[in-house]
């Protein structure tokens, strides 16, 4: 049997000679007149995107510090939490936001990166949420390279996804973020960064990042 495409079926149903048969009634939507197909507007409204596939090997295999991943955590209210995660040391930083606009997101990120050693400001990776549409400001202000994942591939920013999962222990999806101030959030982040990690040889993320900066820190746990 020779296969036919859906367009051939619709053409048969809606051709002039078949109108009396009213075959259109058997269609799922049952339109008497076939509506013309309109092209959808592109959802890609992020300018100057650079693909993650062009990222250098040093960033891919965690050879050097300074390469970050960013994401948002959304809880019960409209407020959100911006999370940025350093790939090599596993240091996680976060800040509360009032919403998830692109302007506020880049402003909060710039505030965070401005406090970091320039050696730790190499690149940052995003998903395709338009929340990160103003990524170009990170390029112009800090000379950071910005990378974007493929669509619907959260595993390509697995570091920050893992950090989000850890944060969810304190910030479940039904948590009222309005009930928490930034100081309480920073206490949580401090705890995460002072927790020894097997992948770091049981160093803490803070110890790992200080080691990359040529500094030594010994942390004793009671």
Give a short overview:
The chain has 222 residues and is α/β, with parallel strands linked by helices. The protein contains seven helices and five strands, in the order ααβββαβαβααα.
What does this structure look like?
- The chain has a 5-stranded mixed beta sheet, sandwiched between helices.
- By secondary structure, the chain is α/β, with parallel strands linked by helices.
- The protein starts with 5 loop residues before the first helix and ends in a 10-residue tail after the last helix.
- β4 (123-126), α4 (136-142) and β5 (145-148) form a beta-alpha-beta unit.
- α3 packs parallel to α4 (136-142).
- The chain is 28% helix and 13% strand.
- The chain has helices at 6-14, 57-60, 102-114, 136-142, 158-167, 182-193, 205-212, and strands at residues 67-74, 80-86, 92-97, 123-126, 145-148.
**Shape category:** elongated
Low-confidence stretches: 39-43
Q: Helix tally?
A: 7
Radius of gyration: 25 Å
Kindly report the average pLDDT value.
Answer: 84
User: How much β-strand is present in the residues?
Assistant: 5-15%
Secondary structure: helix percent: 25-40%
* Structural class by SSE content: alpha/beta
Give, in spatial order, the strands making up the sheet with the most strands: 3-2-1-4-5
Q: Largest sheet, described in full? A: 5 strands, mixed
What is the count of β-strands? Answer: 5
Succession of helices and strands: HHEEEHEHEHHH
Key attributes of the depicted protein:
5 strands; 222 residues; alpha/beta; elongated; five-stranded mixed beta sheet; 7 helices
